[in-house]
Amino acid sequence: MGKKPMHFIKRHVSMAVGALCGICNGLFGAGGGIVAVPLLKWSGIPIKKAHATSLMVILPISIVSAVLYLWNGSVTFTAALPYLPGGFIGAVAGALLMSKVPDLLLRKAFGAFMIYAAVRLFLR
After folding, report:
1. Which residues span the domain enclosing 45?
2. What mean pLDDT is predicted for residues 26-54?
3. For 75, which of 20, 61, 62, 102 is 20 to 30 Å away at the CA?
4. Which residues of 55-76 are buried (b: 16+ CB within 10 A; e: fewer)?
């Protein structure tokens, strides 16, 4: 009996985190990952698994966002095409490197990137 309420809470918290990631992704591009990683880490998932899980969550959300942006005429596939080869290469390199990067360094690098992005956005 005690397990059922906890499962209910965990499922609804997961849905809320997913909804928040989707909203951020729709508004900010792949910004849902910036929300997902800390929330997944907060929920008890180890940092490397949180990054990997974030990508698995963001991929379908990004596809939905991209289709809606294409459908609304906000972007064209032609405009995105030049960035795809480098993005694929970078994604493979990052995924391969993540297993070699110590957790502490990964956390600090992610935090530094978030601070850099925040300062850059604030000063624009």
Report:
1. 3-123
2. 79
3. 20
4. bebbeebbeebbeeeeeeeeee
